[in-house]
Backbone:
């Protein structure tokens, strides 16, 4: 691998496959714009690995150069933020605001969900200090004065990882993918203009329900999604369903504190005949499969396969050839493809920031996906699907009501995810 590992996902950048993140932070009070602008610049200086701009070399290599320009902090325009452009000082991340909402935009290649929280919590910590004149507990928040943590910028060493095959196999048989819905939706409106829905659950009640059904948040949500898909599909078409569940594998590859994007999928295969089973049974099946796939050997294999893809890009000459290779050899486009995706990598501490934040939601590219954040005593779900009639969302809510899982609904909202734009000319 010849380049900065954060650069490789940019070869797949485009209007429909962008791998971008938009984190929505709903504050309890209207945003103090001057305080936000000051806090944003103060915090951003702590993360030089995010302060990058794109440069394309003559051989087509995408280079990430240091970018000394200020971070863009602007009112939300309702349009798609164009990361990497002059509009936002060529950065691959930016901040927007409206009313009591702060949006953090970032290209996914720069970080994973854990890494982006370094930046978000730091910005909010400095914002609270600037806007309200109080200083909160720092804890693990990386403020402007926090020195680099050991391993913060570490990247796995493939040679040090096990070559052992994992015990057990992931079933790769064909499952139901709502491709007809996607095709129809793409003809009507771009990916980024589909809606997303926000749900709020009481953490205490949901965890009590999960424990009483042999479950964790991930296994219960996966079981509920399986049931939701069954509600709106014919058994003749959706003969089998697969749930993919995000796993943060930084620790498995020796980099537990890194900001880099190191996640993989655990895959749960649900034969359609499980439709008649209750949630406890489905959750038990899900957890048993998750347990097998949590072996470090799966993580080592995932990382090495991703590294092979990056090294393959290195062998190609010219940007077009590199992009074609990236698109056809992307580890993100290889089986096992899932019917749906659940993304929750655990609870994070906020050290008093939660007293100023009402709720938070992660908005991503997911085709049929539930993103989960936890804050204070709540779980915040973001439900995304490529279906204009939101039939899967309605079925998911119905499945929760059948289980007496109480929730509040917000939305739908237009997704309006940012784009990542490559420069047209070498710089």
Residues:
């Amino acid at each position: 691998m010849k380049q900065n590992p954060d650069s490789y996902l940019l070869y797949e950048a485009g209007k429909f496959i962008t791998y971008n993140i938009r984190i929505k932070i709903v504050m309890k009070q209207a945003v103090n714009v001057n305080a936000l602008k000051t806090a944003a610049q103060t915090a951003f200086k702590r993360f030089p690995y995010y302060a990058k701009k794109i440069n394309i070399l003559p051989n087509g290599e995408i280079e990430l150069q240091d970018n000394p320009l200020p971070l863009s902090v602007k009112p939300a325009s309702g349009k798609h933020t164009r990361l990497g452009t002059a509009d936002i000082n060529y950065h691959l991340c930016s901040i927007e605001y409206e009313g009591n909402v702060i949006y953090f935009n970032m290209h996914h290649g720069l970080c994973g969900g854990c890494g982006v929280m370094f930046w978000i919590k730091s910005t909010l910590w400095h914002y609270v200090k600037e806007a309200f004149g109080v200083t909160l507990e720092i804890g693990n928040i990386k403020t402007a004065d926090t020195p680099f943590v050991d391993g913060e910028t570490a990247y796995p060493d493939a040679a040090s990882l096990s070559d052992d095959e994992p015990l057990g196999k992931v079933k790769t048989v064909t499952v139901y993918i709502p491709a007809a819905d996607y095709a129809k939706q793409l003809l009507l409106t771009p990916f980024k203009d589909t809606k997303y829905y926000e749900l709020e659950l009481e953490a205490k009640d949901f965890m009590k329900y999960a424990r009483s059904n042999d479950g964790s948040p991930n296994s219960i949500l996966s079981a509920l999604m399986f049931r939701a898909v069954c509600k709106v599909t014919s058994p003749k078409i959706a003969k089998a369903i697969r749930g993919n569940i995000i796993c943060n594998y930084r620790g498995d590859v020796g980099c537990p504190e890194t900001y880099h994007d190191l996640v993989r999928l655990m895959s749960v295969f649900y034969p359609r005949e499980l439709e008649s089973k209750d949630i406890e049974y489905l959750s038990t099946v899900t957890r048993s499969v998750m347990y097998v796939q949590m072996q470090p050997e799966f993580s080592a294999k995932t990382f090495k396969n991703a590294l092979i893809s990056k090294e393959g890009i290195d062998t190609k000459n010219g940007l077009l050839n590199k992009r074609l290779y990236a698109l056809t050899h992307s580890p993100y486009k290889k089986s096992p493809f899932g019917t749906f995706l659940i993304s929750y990598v655990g609870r994070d501490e906020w050290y008093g920031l939660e007293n100023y934040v009402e709720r938070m939601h992660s908005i991503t590219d997911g085709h049929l996906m539930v993103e989960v954040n936890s804050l204070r005593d709540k779980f915040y779900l973001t439900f995304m699907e490529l279906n204009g009639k939101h039939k899967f969302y309605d079925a998911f809510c119905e499945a929760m009501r059948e289980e007496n899982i109480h929730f509040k609904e917000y939305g739908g909202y237009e997704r309006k995810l940012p784009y990542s734009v490559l420069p047209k000319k070498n710089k």
